[in-house]
Amino acid sequence: LYDAARSAAALEEAKVTGCAVDASTPASTPGAVSVGYRVKKIRIGSYEIDSWYISPYPDEYSRHPLLYICEFCLKYMKSSYTYTRHCQKCTLRHPPGDEIYRDGSISVFEVDGRKNKIYCQNLCLMGKMFLDTKTLYYDVEPFLFYILCEYDARGYHFAGYYSKEKRSVQGYNLSCIMILPSKQREGYGKLLIEFSYLLSKKEGVSGSPEKPLSDFGLLSYRSYWRRAVYEILLHVGERARVVTIDAVSRKTGMTVDDVISTLQTDGMLQRKGVSYAIVVDKARIERFVELAREKAPRRIDSSKLRWAPFLTKNTTVVQEDDGDISV
Q: Which residues have CB under 8 Å from 320's CB, separation 6+?
């Protein structure tokens, strides 16, 4: 059923975008999503949310413009009656994984795609409704999912998530990220980005999001990178006159390439002889950091993380010939 739904979804996506499709692909497959059908809304918790993109739900569900989704187990249903009955019987009050972070009413759970396959598949199907470039729906076993929840007396309510590969050859620390539209503009996106870098630092490696980034994703990451690098430069500049790009990378969890890209974008990296120097406008950095703090953004408290790396890696330290960076 899942394979059929996935094939039909690809056909439908191609028709919407006008891309060519192999003529041998069947137009209709038993149990697949029929072309022309699309879930237009979902009901999750107390929210009714419009979908943005096509998601390959099985045919019997895609025929319904409104799907009901349990905010705790993410099971999807066709009718309000079934949904109400399910909510009365569902015993799950949090994602089926380990709670690795809690700060006030905010919690993050780590869910293994191999151990909780159905939950993660349901998560990916829902995520596809709000992610244009997402292609992962059913092959969830190689991934870990980090679920952001809001906690109250009723349980842990789903707000968003990000995923990452258990073994990423390229060193990616994030594959995709999604915040429910009803929870956007509350700082949860940057909170999860910061969380992904905290895990990278705990692993003793640098990390970067999977490329290419969407336009919106690039803006979000550039904003986070700028804040992270500026805070390090401001802190280190008060104690030392020289800092290396490698040192900034280690303290932020960012890759050397992302650190360099951030500095170059802001015109702060200049070549001096055989090395490069960070040309710092201290007043500008202080003003940026102060304005960022005035907005009172949600931040991760590293002392509240209860987590050990999924895999123990034998890391090799590569000496980069970047030279010293003068501040």
A: 245, 246, 256
